[in-house]
């Protein structure tokens, strides 16, 4: 049963301080009811507190003042050098956060078991004017959270951008990034990524860095190119949800993946054992389109989707499209293997490039991530 939708911004404002409960089932940021945390309960759960610090390099963040800091960025700024852990109490952190490259080996933990309770959110878009009058933010500058450091790990946190087209009908720069990740060995476990266009920017710091990223048991929602970038990224057991666009009268509403893999990189995006669902009409979404940016016209986007359930929202007849006709998707590295669901039906074989069994053996998390094994650790 579908519940009435409420905009992300409105929902987060009404639930701030009571834990942000963002619904999964019935569209973007559907209102849910969560009880206000009991004032005598420990805001950091089993992860200690400022009075009982787990390690000397653990900091506690709580918007209600019960930690070392009330904002995530303040804690990041204080955590100079490598190896810091931030424990985030449940709440809504309305701010932008930037992790510089020298903050290596950082770990962020949402103290609540449910990632919907710990939310980092802001509402900049690419076309949002900068306060100093120097122009607009652009796609990268719109990110609520930016992580440049290697060795970053996040657990049970929601990263969101609640900028809405409906509130800004005159904007042309409608990209609004929830998180931009650029470092090598970046891992996200049981996290949520909420936005519309360009939600999850899985990228690298430069063309020569083949940054590896791992997303396990995560949820991502959006509409246009909402998982994009040039990282080597593995998405294991993740749920991708395509949103209904009321500003469009027909298909396509958008594209799930838009990789921009460097031509020299042998590994791009790997989606394995996941699922793609949709609140839009059947066939209104493409699985992917290749992004060959003007800054790297030698890019050769790579995406493998295997053993994943593709819901009816995916156009099974023409699941891929061009972003620019000069770089047709047929010349990129798009492959599928043993997918299921109505969106995976092979009706036009030349539109569904598939791996052979022998080829599939080299499209695994082990092959993509090499000597880095984030999936072996206890979570």
Task: Give a quick rundown of the structure.
By secondary structure, this protein is mainly beta. It has helices at residues 8-15, 72-78, 138-141, 357-360, 365-369; strands at residues 22-23, 30-31, 58-61, 85-88, 91-94, 97-99, 107-110, 118-122, 145-147, 153-155, 158-161, 179-181, 186-189, 192-194, 200-202, 212-216, 219-222, 224-229, 232-236, 239-242, 254-259, 269-272, 275-278, 285-288, 302-306, 309-310, 333-337. The strands form four sheets. It has a ten-stranded parallel beta sheet.
Task: Describe the protein in words.
There is one protein chain. This protein has about 375 residues and is mostly beta strands. The protein has 5 helices and 27 strands. The model is unreliable at about 1-25 and about 30-40 (pLDDT under 50).
Features:
single chain, 379 residues, mainly beta, 10-stranded parallel β-sheet, 8-stranded parallel β-sheet, disordered N terminus
Strand portion, in percent?
25-35%
Largest sheet: 10 strands, parallel
Assign a percent range to the helix content.
under 10%
Low-pLDDT residue spans: 1-27, 29-40
Shape: globular
What's the pLDDT, averaged over the residues?
91
Q: Number of helical segments?
A: 5
Major sheet strand order: 3-4-7-10-13-16-19-22-25-27
CA gyration radius, whole angstroms: 20 Å
In terms of structural class, how would the helical and strand content be classed? mainly beta
Total number of beta strands: 27
What's the N-to-C terminus distance?
A: 33 Å
């Amino acid at each position: 049963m579908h519940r009435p939708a409420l905009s992300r911004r409105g929902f987060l404002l009404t639930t701030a301080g009571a834990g942000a409960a963002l619904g999964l089932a019935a569209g973007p940021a559907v209102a849910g009811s969560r009880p206000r945390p009991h004032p005598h309960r420990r805001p950091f759960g089993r992860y200690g507190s400022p009075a009982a610090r787990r390690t000397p390099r653990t900091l506690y963040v709580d918007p209600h003042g019960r930690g070392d800091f009330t904002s995530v960025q303040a804690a990041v700024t204080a955590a100079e050098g490598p190896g810091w852990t931030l424990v985030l109490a449940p709440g809504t952190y309305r701010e932008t956060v930037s992790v510089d490259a020298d903050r290596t080996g950082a770990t962020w933990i949402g103290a609540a078991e449910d990632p919907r309770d710990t939310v980092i959110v802001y509402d900049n878009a690419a076309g949002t004017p900068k306060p100093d009058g120097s122009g607009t933010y652009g796609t990268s500058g719109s990110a609520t959270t930016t992580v440049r450091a290697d060795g970053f790990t996040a657990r049970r946190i929601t990263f969101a951008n609640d900028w809405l087209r409906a509130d800004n009908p005159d904007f042309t720069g409608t990209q609004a990034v929830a998180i931009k990740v650029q470092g090598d060995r970046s891992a996200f476990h049981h996290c949520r990524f909420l936005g519309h266009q360009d939600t999850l920017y899985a990228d690298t710091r430069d063309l020569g860095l083949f940054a590896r990223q791992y997303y396990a048991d995560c949820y991502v929602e959006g509409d246009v190119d909402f998982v994009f970038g040039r990282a080597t990224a593995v998405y294991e057991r993740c749920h991708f949800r395509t949103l209904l666009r009321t500003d469009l009268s027909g298909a396509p509403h958008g594209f799930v993946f838009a990789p921009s893999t460097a031509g020299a990189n042998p590994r791009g995006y790997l989606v394995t054992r996941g699922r793609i669902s949709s609140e839009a009409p059947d066939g209104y979404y493409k699985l992917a389109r290749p992004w060959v940016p003007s800054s790297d016209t030698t890019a050769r986007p790579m995406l493998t989707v295997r053993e994943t359930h593709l819901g009816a929202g995916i156009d099974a007849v023409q699941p891929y499209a061009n972003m620019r006709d000069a770089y047709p998707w047929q010349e990129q590295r798009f492959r599928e293997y043993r997918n299921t669901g109505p969106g995976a039906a092979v009706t036009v074989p030349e539109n569904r490039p598939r791996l052979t069994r022998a080829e599939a053996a080299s499209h695994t998390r082990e092959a993509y991530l090499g000597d880095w094994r984030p999936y072996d650790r206890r979570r």
